[in-house]
peptidylprolyl isomerase
Amino acid sequence: MASCAELSEPSAPLPAGVPPLEDFEVLDGVEDAEGEEEEEEEEEEEDDLSELPPLEDMGQPPAEEAEQPGALAREFLAAMEPEPAPAPAPEEWLDILGNGLLRKKTLVPGPPGSSRPVKGQVVTVHLQTSLENGTRVQEEPELVFTLGDCDVIQALDLSVPLMDVGETAMVTADSKYCYGPQGSRSPYIPPHAALCLEVTLKTA
């Protein structure tokens, strides 16, 4: 039976080619240090954001694309451009009664701020009367009458209140608003004759 002294003696030497245990511990420590350095390098690479674009540049189009307006922008700019002013409409006839039988057209407008006469007011007009074929049958340089008193043909009573003082107008009137089926001897107006009246309202 082996004694205690024999048990406490060192064990038999290791076979040739096998390193001692101390060397294993040293190697393990070196491997641990190298692993830690590799992990630190990986963390540094993950933390390095210098190559990434700044946040304010993310989500924005390239500078060349941003400078060029899109289709919607071009349409908006085109809509903002002022349109050319329309040409003035030609002078139109005013259908006084709405039946086409008594019409008025302004030839020379009255001055700004001129007034219009009212029924019962005395007016002075320069009147030239012509047939439809252009034959002049009457001229009154200073015809004075009271509006609405039937002193003159109905065409004048109805058209003069629509004129400004100083205005010159052309009035075309059917015979029913002039001398009717009877016509007139002085001035000579044939029966059922429509007339053209050039009227200048001088005073009112």
Helices lie at 4-8, 21-47, 63-67, 71-80, 154-159. The chain is about 25% helix and 20% strand. The beta strands are 94-95, 102-108, 122-131, 136-146, 168-173, 195-203. The longest helix spans residues 21-47.
